[in-house]
């Protein structure tokens, strides 16, 4: 029973005219102690998948096992073991931070001290402030405190940093990493590729209710996004043979006589060669730009679309 979270052939169809096939045959196996990410654009089926795994929605078909148990047979036990931060948490604006976290702690038989959890999310100074008076980032940290107060073995986070400023995002990331460092298992959804790269050991990229690629960020980039792009601008044309290309450096485009685009499988090895060749050509480099492939490039390579085509969240 190694897997913390396992689902097989998950399907969720919402009735309607026409019906919406939100999840279309999705299988996952997530190990204990890992931070696993579901990365995909708006409408990909991330929230629906997560809510099924959280026991908040029933699938149309397919099986789910959390810590080896099913929601049908072990819901109260699983509630004790899991912490949930929903995509949109509607906390009561009239309660203070401490009252809110206390309320959530009362849902669990074995919970942490609310004050300790508030300190963990760095909101000590706001413990007696009303939720309604907090910033977006602070509210999100309260939501995390509510998810953590039951001392969960598993943490489900649905787009925990959508709409937050960069500093708040980093605070949330730190919290997630601290939780994982202490042995917790995390399942997180996001449409931010930098978040996925930062936090997740493994990822499933989902699109239209299906997994289209799975692996570590580095594996995904290596197998789907190809090479680093090196652009070189010269002051005067160096001639098309200024550099010898080979295995790890392939010349691709010569956009105009002064401007070259090369593809490299190893930036560290290629860059000195590029500089050396430029020097030998006797011409001066005016500008050099590099672009390392990212998960965004993986998504584009797989779908022909960008991760964030339209609005911010759905
Ligand atoms: N309760 C619902 N009734 C009908 N359609 C829904 C419902 N919940 C989600 N959907 C639809 O299912 C698809 C997947 O939604 P969702 O799981 O929220 O995607 P994501 O979280 O990746 O943005 C979308 O087309 C959405 O409109
Ligand atoms: Mg969602």
Category from helices, strands and their pairing: alpha/beta
The protein's oligomeric status is single chain
**Please, how many helices?**
10
Heterogens: adenosine-5'-diphosphate, magnesium ion
Q: How does the major sheet shape up?
A: 6 strands, mixed
- What is the fold named in CATH at topology level of the largest domain? Rossmann fold
What keywords describe this structure?
314 residues; alpha/beta; Rossmann fold; Alpha-Beta Plaits; 2 domains; six-stranded mixed sheet; four-stranded antiparallel sheet; 10 helices; 13 strands; 33% helix; elongated; disordered C terminus; binds adenosine-5'-diphosphate; binds magnesium ion
What is the element layout, followed by pairings?
Layout: E1 3-14, E2 20-31, E3 35-39, H1 46-53, E4 61-66, H2 71-81, E5 82-85, H3 97-105, H4 114-120, H5 136-148, E6 154-158, H6 166-181, E7 185-190, H7 193-199, E8 202-207, E9 210-215, H8 217-225, E10 228-234, E11 249-256, E12 259-264, H9 267-281, E13 285-291, H10 295-303
Helix pairs in contact: 3-4, 3-5, 4-5, 5-6, 8-10
Structural summary, described in words:
Helices cover 33% and strands 29% of the residues. A hairpin with a 2-residue loop joins strand 11 (249-256) and strand 12 (259-264). It is elongated. With 314 residues, it is α/β, with parallel strands linked by helices. The protein is built from 10 helices and 13 strands. The chain folds into 2 domains: 3-222, P-loop containing nucleotide triphosphate hydrolases (Rossmann fold), CATH 3.40.50; 227-292, Alpha-Beta Plaits (2-Layer Sandwich), CATH 3.30.70. Mean pLDDT is 92; it is low at 310-314. Adenosine-5'-diphosphate (ADP) binds next to strand 2 and helix 1.
């Amino acid at each position: 029973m190694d897997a913390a979270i396992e689902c097989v052939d998950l399907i969720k169809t919402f009735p309607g005219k026409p019906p919406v096939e939100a999840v279309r045959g999705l299988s996952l196996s997530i190990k204990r102690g890992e931070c696993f990410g579901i990365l995909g654009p708006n409408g990909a089926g991330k929230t629906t998948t997560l809510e099924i795994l959280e026991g908040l929605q029933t699938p149309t078909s397919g099986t789910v096992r959390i810590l080896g148990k099913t929601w049908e047979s072990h819901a109260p036990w699983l509630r004790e073991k899991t912490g949930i931060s929903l995509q949109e948490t509607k906390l009561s604006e009239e309660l203070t931070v401490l009252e809110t976290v206390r309320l959530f702690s009362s849902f669990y038989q074995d919970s942490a001290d609310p004050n300790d959890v508030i300190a963990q999310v760095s909101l000590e100074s706001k413990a007696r402030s009303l939720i309604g008076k907090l910033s977006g980032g602070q509210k999100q940290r309260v939501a995390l405190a509510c998810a953590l107060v039951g001392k969960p073995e598993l943490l489900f986070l649905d787009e925990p940093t959508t709409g937050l400023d960069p500093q708040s995002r980093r605070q949330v990331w730190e919290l997630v990493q601290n939780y994982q460092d202490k042995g917790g298992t995390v399942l997180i959804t996001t449409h931010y590729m930098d978040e996925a790269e930062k936090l997740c050991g493994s990822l499933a990229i989902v699109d239209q209710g299906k997994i289209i690629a799975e692996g570590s960020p580095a594996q995904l980039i290596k197998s789907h996004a190809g090479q680093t792009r090196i652009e070189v601008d010269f002051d005067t044309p160096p001639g098309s043979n200024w550099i010898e290309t080979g295995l790890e450096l392939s010349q691709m485009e010569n956009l105009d006589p002064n401007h070259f685009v090369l593809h490299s499988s190893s930036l560290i090895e290629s860059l000195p060669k590029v500089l050396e060749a430029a020097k030998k050509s006797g011409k001066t480099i005016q500008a050099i730009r590099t672009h390392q492939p990212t998960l965004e490039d993986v998504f584009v390579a797989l779908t022909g679309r960008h991760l964030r085509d339209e609005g911010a969240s759905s």
